[in-house]
Design goal:
Number of helices: 7
Structural class: alpha/beta
Mean pLDDT: 89
Low-confidence stretches: 204-225
Shape: globular
Helix content: 25-40%
Largest sheet: 7 strands, mixed
Strand order of the largest sheet: 3-2-1-4-5-7-6
Radius of gyration: 16 Å
Number of strands: 7
């Protein structure tokens, strides 16, 4: 919980209410496995909260396949400057998300019951996030059409992150991705650090893959074109 206070700061009481709701209603409704309760903070809340290091200030974020609100609800808690749209097609999950938003008093969150391909004409967002939704090859087809040129897909991935990126490269090229890279965020806060695949949307063919060493991105960073 010391790390929880470091990550969430003054918003820790809100994060604690969310954790309690996940541990009760989330388990009862099958959104979180019972075995996950003892590791909610490290494996889920903090693991998602550190994604905020890679999200620009004042961004509009769409969380694809939001499920129990990971990472969308967590990002809304830790970063009130963000505008978050939770995109989820299943009614039982959107009902849970609506209840979360009301319980936590999150005025920067909208819940939409829809699939990404159904709302593509409605969105031109800065950032799309996703966690445990689909392989990158398929996820990119849903996410990139929702992004403005220069917008970013931040996909939380595990040990196969590099392999998924390699496999998805032909699809990313067809979709006009501008660049790709792997990031690790949350060093010193969560072990292992959270691995992100970042894909920058653009027009035309991929211009290159950035092969930087893992670093902690800053939420207030300037975006390169």
């Amino acid at each position: 919980m010391g790390t929880g206070r470091e990550v969430f700061g003054d918003a820790l009481p809100i994060a604690e209410r969310y954790a309690a709701f996940l541990a009760e209603a989330g388990v009862e409704r099958g959104l979180i496995g019972p075995r996950e309760v003892d590791r909610l903070w490290e494996r889920h809340l903090i693991n998602c909260a550190v994604v905020s290091e890679a999200v620009p200030a004042d961004a509009h974020v769409v969380d694809i396949g939001s499920g129990a609100g990971l990472p969308g609800i967590v990002l809304a808690i830790v970063r009130p400057d963000l505008r978050i749209t939770l995109l989820e097609p299943l009614l039982r999950r959107t009902t849970f998300l609506d209840e979360c938003v009301q319980l936590l008093g999150l005025e920067n969150v909208e819940v939409r019951r829809a699939r990404a391909e159904e709302v593509v004409k409605e969105f031109s967002v800065d950032v799309a996030t996703a966690r445990a939704v689909a392989p990158l090859e398929r996820l990119a087809k849903w996410a990139l059409p929702l992004l403005r040129p220069g917008g970013e897909l931040l996909a939380l991935k595990g040990e196969r992150a590099q392999a998924e990126l390699d496999e998805a490269e032909p699809v990313l090229k067809r979709l006009g991705a501008r660049s790709t890279e792997l990031l690790q965020v949350g060093r010193g806060m969560v072990d292992p650090p959270t691995t992100l695949v970042r894909v920058v949307a653009g027009r035309g063919e991929v211009v290159g893959r950035r092969q930087r060493a893992p670093r902690r991105a800053k939420g207030s960073r300037k975006r390169s074109s």
